[in-house]
Amino acid sequence: MSFSPRPFTTLLTLALLIMLISLGRWQLQRADEKRALYQAFAAGNDATVTIDAQTQPLPRYQHVDARGHYDGERQVLIDNMFDAEKVGYFVITPFALDGGGWLLVNRGWVPLGKSRADKPSTPVADDLRRIRGRADHLPAAGIQMGQRAALNPPYPVVAAFPNHDELTQLLGEAGWSGATDVLLLDPAEPDGYARHWGPPGFPPLRHIGYAVQWFALAAALLVIYLITNFKRTGPGAKPVPKGAP
Known about the structure:
245 residues, alpha/beta, five-stranded mixed beta barrel
């Protein structure tokens, strides 16, 4: 047996192996990140922190409560949000904190109407109350394309992946609590909609499964490369056709 690889085949195989192994390692890294998110979500209920205007930034998914009242006249609908396979909006309602300051509250998901011109009705009373939920980030797009348009009334304003600065500029209020970008309203709290909160994206095991697939493809490619480049020599070997490389 002799090992007689061609330079081009070797370089191509090496490039593909590097790519496949890199993809597998990236999926393992994503699995670690998701595992940390799931652990943070599970640990969030260990204690409840009361939010006010002076509260410092809290860990993601920390369980919190706040006292104040909703401003139901100035709500934002975050577009292209999904519940299972249905498209709709997240309902973001400003919450005036008792003692001063503001907080954004995600009251849950509502389905899309017959058209996007048919905005859902999401009323809420402005009575003094205590709300409970989890600290979280606002939904963010994976890739931001083009220049973002300014958000303007009439309310409710429909927005695609707005950030906190854009929402505070729209609402024109000062003294926002630095505790969190948004509070995910607990499922047991009143005046909310569909709330199936959890870490976004695939669970860790899904990423590990993808990593195994990439590593398996890399192993299969290496085996194919070795088999196709080992050639028999000596008695019984097939003659190489004349003119063959």
